[in-house]
Amino acid sequence: MGCLFCNIVEKKIPAAIVHEDEHTLAFRDINPVAPTHVLVIPKKHVAAMHDTSPADAELLGRLFTAANGVARELGLVDKGYRLVVNDGADGGQSVFHVHVHVLGGRSLAWPPG
């Protein structure tokens, strides 16, 4: 079956999509940790942040621009929101396809974990 997120991109697995463009896809997390919890992924498979290189700068820029747009669309900008990228197993990454968590809708504590 391959990468879970690649299967969502290919529409083999359903997801509650909130944004899609040529390069990125955003969908609601099935295990939300905040009232708003959306995952934003590049459509191109990159397993982890530590696998990126300077050649991925445009892809990463598009990813964070899409995350900002999702936050704006979902009304999170006025009160604030958090963007989280987990890298590797010890960093909390459970799906090995680069993704940004957009979290908001309540006050978020610090430190996060």
In short:
By secondary structure, the protein is of the alpha+beta class. 20% of the residues lie in helices and 22% in strands.
From the 3D structure, determine the CATH topology: HIT family, subunit A
Q: What are the low-pLDDT stretches, counting only 5+ consecutive residues below 50?
A: none
- Assembly form of the protein: single chain
Record field, number of beta strands:
5
Task: Supply Rg.
Answer: 14 Å
Mean pLDDT: 96
Order of helices and strands: HEEEHEE
**What is the H level of CATH, i.e. the homologous superfamily?**
HIT-like
Number of helices: 2
Biggest sheet strand order reads: 1-2-3-5-4
Biggest sheet, open or closed, and with what strands and sense? 5 strands, antiparallel
Total domain modules? 1
Computed structural class = alpha+beta
What is the CATH architecture term?
2-Layer Sandwich
Instruction: Give helix % range.
Output: 10-25%
CATH level 1 name: Alpha Beta
Euclidean distance between termini CA atoms? 31 Å
- Quote the beta fraction: 15-25%
Overall spatial form: globular
